[in-house]
Design a protein that fits this description.
alpha+beta, 4 helices, about 250 residues, about 30% helix, four-stranded antiparallel sheet
Length: about 250
């Protein structure tokens, strides 16, 4: 069941989204060679809590971190730890914040130091695909119009679109209906209505779309070891078009 949000609920979601955007801005500034992913996790935790919110990810289904910190071939759900970032890496940082009972969720991929042209292009195309998908999030379109736009844009560059993990509805819970794949034919699924709130999150691999989960039962990596990138925004569908709730 897709839950349509009232104006009061949208205001709560705007508050949560703003905190997420600000927290991502803080952690982005901390990304540099020799920093550990745990240090970045602590920055996010401190910022979210300083705003009176709760880090949504901590303890979610047992997840141990305040953020997901996924480096290079790690696609999603990387556990923060003592791994030190190196020049030329990328790091995908996914975080959520809950305030007044509502959740904001967003992700960015950040280059570490100087990255090569191929890594830079992967990051740029993945971020642009998110906005391409958001452009399709208008009243009257079908849900899969978002999915199809992301797929066609990224596959045009020869990249692999992750199938095993998808975007989702969001509100009082981080994961609500509907699921939002980043691939598929257009014109399928429910019609988009004002009041829907969605977390759209393309996960795009430099090589194959295939992924596997490591022995920690969390961290998802590309099967071929090539890098991945991940961007996400929480949006609201309104009569005037999509509103990005997790953008400064």
């Amino acid at each position: 069941m897709i839950i349509l949000k009232s104006q009061r609920e949208l205001n709560y979601l705007r508050d949560a989204g703003r905190i997420v955007a600000e927290a991502l801005n803080e952690v982005k500034k901390a990304v540099k060679p020799d920093v550990t992913t745990l240090e970045i996790d602590r920055i996010a935790e401190q910022y979210i809590k300083s705003k009176g919110a709760v880090p949504t990810f901590k303890g979610y289904n047992g997840f141990p971190g305040n953020i997901c910190a996924s480096v290079n071939e790690e696609v999603v759900h990387g556990i923060p730890g003592l791994k030190r970032l190196k020049n030329g890496d990328n790091i995908s940082i996914d975080l959520g914040a809950t305030i007044n009972g509502y959740v904001g969720d967003a992700a960015i991929t950040v280059p570490v130091g100087q990255v090569d042209a191929e890594m830079k292009k992967l990051i740029e195309v993945t971020e642009q695909s998110l906005y391409k998908g958001i452009e399709k999030a208008i009243v009257g379109n079908r849900l899969s119009d978002i999915s199809h736009e992301i797929q066609t844009y990224t596959e045009g560059y020869g990249y692999g679109v992750v199938r095993d993990y998808v975007g989702h509805g969001i509100g009082r819970n981080m994961h609500e209906d509907p699921q939002i794949p980043n691939y598929g034919l257009p014109g399928r699924g429910p019609r988009l209505k004002s009041g829907m709130t969605l977390a759209i999150e393309p996960m795009i691999n430099a090589g194959t779309h295939e992924v596997k989960t490591l022995g920690n039962n969390w961290t998802v990596v590309t099967v071929d070891g090539k890098p991945s990138a991940h961007f996400e925004h929480t949006i609201a569908i309104t009569p005037d078009g999509p509103e990005i709730l997790t953008k400064l």
